Each structure stands twice: as C-alpha cells, then as structure tokens.
C-alpha cells in the first residue's frame, strides 16, 4: 500500500505522473480513495453532497437504505460511475458496513447524505492519513471546526459522553458522535464493527483507541441538513451510545493486549492515547 503525498509538478515524467492523482496544483496522492455515502430518501440532498466531492477520488459507494424516492436515480445522474449497494439490514451502522465491504480503495471516507458535510474537506482527511495517521477523525469542536446543526442538549450530551470515553479509554477526543471520518482500509480488520445504529461512530472511535491505532482529529464544519428530517433521536440514541461505552469498557483489558504494528508512524502526529505523543 502506498502512502505518498508529493508535489504535483509539471516536470514529472509520464510514468510517474500516471501513478498519482492530482489533488491540486501543489499536491498529488497515490492511494485510491473511496467515499461511502449511506442514504435513505435523500434524493433532494444528493446534488449538494455530490457537488462538493473532489473529482480525484477513486470511487463513490452509495448505500441505499430501501429508499422510496429516486435517491438511486439521482445519484447515478450526478455521478455516472457511482457504485450502488442495496442495504439488506437496517440502521446507519449496517449501511456503513455494507459500504465498507464494497470499497476497493486503500483509503475510505465516510460522508453523510444530508448535505451537512463539505466534501472539500476530504483533502484534509487524506493528507492526515498519507502523513502517518491510521484514522482521521472529524471534529466539530477542534480549533477551526464548528456546527450549525446541534441543539444545546445534543452538545451537552456529546460533551459528557466524550468526556467519559476520554477518561475510561485514555483518549483525547474533542468530539465523539460525528459521522465524517476517514481511515486506511486495514483498520477494518482491527475494529470489527458489530453494531447497526447511529452509535457506530462512537464504537469506531473507542475501538481505534483500544487497537492502538494512530488518530488525528480534523477540524470540520457541520452544516444544517438541507431537506427532510433526521432519523436521529437525541435521547434514544444517547442511551445507545452510553450502552456501547459501557459494553466496550467491560472488555477493555482483553482488547488492549492485542498487538498492533502500523507502517504509518509519524512522531509529529498527535495520538489519542493517554501518553505523550
């Protein structure tokens, strides 16, 4: 697996140029990037989502959660090469798992289909990964991040749950329940996602810490959902997140003994472990 981030200069010879995907006039990357978008009845929002996706990504995987509108047709019109996966189960976690299994890229990016995420931020996630991180975690509360779509109750709940995870698992997160993340494909073998609902992001964040993976937070701005209403329910899903935290705490010791060796070491990266980077 290549993890090169190099200047995209005009004097590259043809064989070398074919190896890299130009990201901007200054950067090019080698690893293919897959973007996974779980969607159910998001036809009206997809134009806003796809319009911000960079054209240098390798593939878009849309997981359709049995939509009753024309979500799939709109996606194919906007991105002709989109890979459509029909979700067999229910829930966001189930949809993401289905999408991850369909990806062929070395890097996987998770993006919500409601128009709240800016695809232009993907370059920041990918840059962190090719520079040495295993998992690039979006944060609305890191310096430079923000949110237009959280009530006071949701912010308070997120802050409390984030504090519990940091204390119990030795993490240093500023955000917990956010669905904009990116990671190397090999991470899937170490975090073993086995939940089906909105708590999937919390489970991922806990298990990357327990697996000893290097995490870098990426400041991200969350915008308002453009059309429709969210299936998220603050109290119900908050209790599900708490259940995940308690469940992972109960088997913490066993998983912490799992050995881990990663080829993407960088002493400059801030880690989420409880020791100094």
Characterize the structure shown.
This protein is α/β, with parallel strands linked by helices and 277 residues long. Helices cover 34% and strands 16% of the residues. The chain is built from ten helices and twelve strands. The chain has helices at 14-19, 46-51, 71-78, 92-102, 122-130, 152-169, 188-191, 200-210, 234-250, 252-256; strands spanning 5-6, 21-22, 28-29, 33-39, 59-64, 83-86, 107-110, 135-139, 146-147, 181-184, 215-219, 221-222. The strands form three sheets. A seven-stranded mixed sheet has the order 6-5-4-7-10-8-11, sandwiched between helices. Strands 1-3-2 form a three-stranded antiparallel sheet. Strands 9-12 form a two-stranded parallel ribbon. A hairpin with a 5-residue loop joins strand 2 (21-22) and strand 3. Helix 6 runs parallel beside helix 9 and helix 8 packs parallel to helix 9 (234-250). The protein is globular, with a radius of gyration of 18 Å. Belongs to the glycosyltransferase 2 family. This is Glycosyltransferase family 2 protein. Residues 253-264 have a biased composition (Basic residues).
How many distinct helices? Answer: 10
Adjacency order of strands in the biggest sheet: 6-5-4-7-10-8-11
Q: What characteristic shape results from the CA principal axes?
A: globular
> SSE string, helix = H, strand = E?
EHEEEHEHEHEHEEHEHHEEHH
- Alpha-carbon distance between the two ends: 25 Å
Biggest pleated sheet: 7 strands, mixed
Low-confidence stretches: 6-17, 253-277
Tell me the radius of gyration: 18 Å
Strand content: 15-25%
- How much helix, percentage-wise, in residues? 25-40%
Average pLDDT number: 83
Based on secondary structure, the structural category is: alpha/beta
Family: Belongs to the glycosyltransferase 2 family.
Organism: Streptomyces pratens
Region (Disordered): 253-277
Domain Glycosyltransferase 2-like: 34-163
């Amino acid at each position: 697996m290549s993890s090169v981030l190099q200047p995209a200069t005009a004097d590259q010879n043809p064989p070398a140029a074919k190896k890299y995907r130009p990201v901007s006039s200054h950067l090019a990357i080698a690893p293919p990037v897959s973007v996974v978008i779980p969607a159910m009845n998001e036809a009206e929002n997809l134009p806003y989502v796809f319009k911000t996706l960079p054209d240098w990504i390798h593939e878009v995987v849309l997981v359709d959660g049995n939509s009753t509108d024309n979500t799939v047709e709109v996606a194919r019109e906007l991105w002709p090469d989109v890979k459509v996966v029909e979700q067999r189960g229910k829930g966001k976690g189930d949809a993401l798992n289905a999408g991850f299994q369909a990806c062929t890229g070395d890097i996987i990016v998770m993006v919500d289909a409601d128009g709240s995420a800016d695809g232009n931020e993907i370059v920041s996630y990918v840059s962190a990964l090719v520079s040495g991180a295993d998992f690039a975690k979006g944060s609305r509360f890191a310096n430079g991040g923000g949110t237009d779509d959280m009530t006071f109750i949701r912010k308070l709940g997120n802050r409390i749950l984030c504090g519990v995870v940091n204390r119990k698992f030795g993490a240093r997160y500023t955000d917990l329940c956010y669905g904009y993340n990116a990671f190397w494909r090999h991470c899937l073998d170490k975090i073993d996602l086995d939940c089906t609902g909105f708590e999937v992001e919390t489970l991922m964040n806990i298990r990357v810490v327990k697996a000893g993976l290097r995490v870098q937070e990426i400041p991200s701005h969350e915008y308002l959902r453009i059309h429709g209403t969210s299936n998220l329910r603050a109290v119900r899903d908050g209790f599900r997140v708490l259940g995940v935290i308690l469940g992972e705490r109960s088997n913490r010791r066993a998983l912490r003994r799992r050995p881990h060796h990663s080829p993407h070491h960088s002493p400059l990266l801030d880690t989420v472990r409880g020791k100094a980077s």
